[in-house]
Design goal:
With 291 residues, this protein is mainly alpha-helical. It is 79% helix and 0% strand. The chain folds into two domains: 96 residues; 175 residues, no CATH class. The longest helix is centred in the first third of the chain and has 47 residues. The protein is elongated and about 105 Å long.
């Protein structure tokens, strides 16, 4: 008995639609779950093809809709996180809080004023360079021996380690305050290992550490001050920071600088006079503030 081709096409199209609609999800039928060309090769005809394409478009729209929902959720989470970060940054913006009239405690570690810092640094520069100019040969001899001097290195390093240990012991460490005892233990152990195994140019490295430690209170004294003269001290301190980093990492640069400055008399005098002039400038800046 022969079968009518139109009846076979209708039955084939129904089986195809059932396989797509009631089988696995549409998203899977779009992949390897259903082979459209194989279904059409069974004689489904144009009507079957149109229904399959309609179902495929519906499945693609569902996928696009799910992607849009995920994108909206991710954007909402990112927006909430950004608002949280902006609120925290506004809370810790000291200048903004001062403009709004709130009185927040400033994060100061040392109670050193700008006038005192200018006075101390200015006197130190004037007296030190004046002594180097007056007793040139004596100072040059001791400076040449300084980079490899073990007693000077031990003395300066103990001072730097004690200073750092004091900061660890008395500074507010915030969320790390519970680990204060461990930090102090690491400081003592690290200082002992440094004295034991790093004796090469120890005095120069320790001098670099002291320069870095001294830079913080001096810069803190200049913070939130409006006087233009503070920049003379700020520039000098940043020069100390750069020099301190080089002294710790490449300590031989100080040895080479000492030999270069002491090799000729005019260089030595130029360095000493420059230091005296800068110290006088700092003292004059302090006097101009009306102190």
């Amino acid at each position: 008995m022969r079968t009518d081709p139109r009846v076979a096409a209708r039955s084939s199209s129904k089986s195809c639609v059932k396989k797509i609609s009631f089988g696995r999800p549409i998203g899977e039928d779009l992949g390897a779950g259903f082979n459209t060309s194989a279904a059409l090769s069974g004689g489904g005809g144009l009507k079957t093809k149109l229904r399959i394409e309609r179902l495929e478009l519906r499945g693609g729209a569902d996928l696009i809709g799910s992607f849009k929902q995920r994108a909206r959720r991710m954007l909402a989470r990112f927006h909430a996180a950004s608002l949280c970060l902006f609120s925290l940054s506004d809370a810790f913006d000291v200048e903004k809080q001062l403009r709004l009239g709130f009185s927040l405690p400033l994060p100061m570690i040392y109670s050193l004023t700008l006038e005192t810092a200018l006075l101390v640094v200015g006197i130190a520069l004037v007296t030190g360079h004046l002594a180097a100019l007056s007793f040139g040969s004596f100072v040059q001899r001791h400076l040449r021996a300084f980079p490899r001097s073990v007693p000077s290195g031990v003395l300066l390093f103990v001072a730097a380690a004690g200073w750092f240990a004091g900061l660890v012991a008395f500074t507010d460490l915030g969320e790390f305050s519970s680990m204060r005892s461990k930090f102090l233990l690491f400081t003592v152990v690290g200082a002992g290992l440094m004295l034991r195994f790093v004796q090469e140019f120890l005095s120069v490295r320790a001098l670099g550490m002291l320069l870095l430690l001294a830079a913080e209170p001096l810069l803190e004294a200049c913070w939130m001050r409006q006087e233009t003269g503070r920049l003379w001290l700020v520039g000098l301190v940043y020069g100390w920071i750069v020099a301190g980093l080089f002294f710790i990492g490449t300590p031989y640069v100080l040895r080479d600088a000492i030999h270069w400055a002491s090799a000729a008399g005019w260089r030595w005098k130029a360095v000493c006079i420059s230091g005296i002039a800068y110290g006088v400038l700092l003292l004059a800046t302090r006097s101009a503030m009306g102190v």
